[in-house]
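Encode chain A's predicted structure.
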Amino acid sequence: TILNPEILTPAIAADPDATVLTTTSAIILLAGQNVTTSNVPIFAGVPEIPFNPAGPTLPGNITVGSLNTTAGGGGPVRLVAPGNITVNGTIDTSANQFPTAISGSVTINAGGNILVTDRITTAASSFANTAGSATSVSGNVQMTSGGSLTLLGEINTTAVAFSDDLPSVTPGTINLNAGSDLVFDTIVTSAFA
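Encoded structure for chain A:
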């Protein structure tokens, strides 16, 4: 779980993803490349928890457990690898805020296979408790694999907004591209106002 955006330092400023890392609760994992910075925040007085992948992996592959960026409003998740990508759990970038909720997008690109063993949620929910309009924008889900693409859980990009004035809702789009087999369970993309 990422709790806050990264603090801008000279090392972070040189990162091509500096804007995303310093303005959202983002998770960005790139395999097969040199890693020079980390977007995992370190807080004073909180012991650092070393990162251990969810199982053995080979160079060029990514294997992780659940990924959650919902703290602070839902930051993006981006996983890129020349090999396989396996997520042994959920990906949740949803946002539940007022009067505006904008959830993070999920982008997964693998030269090999992609496997997600549970749900992907980019849902957004907002409300206006006084006069005013509520706005909800759900993040997009974009996945491309050179091999098979297997999703064992639901993909949910629903946007919901409640207000006395005219609410605005934009559900996220879902784009799945596989080089061979495409297997998925349930896709839910809807708007409620």
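The radius of gyration is 17 Å.
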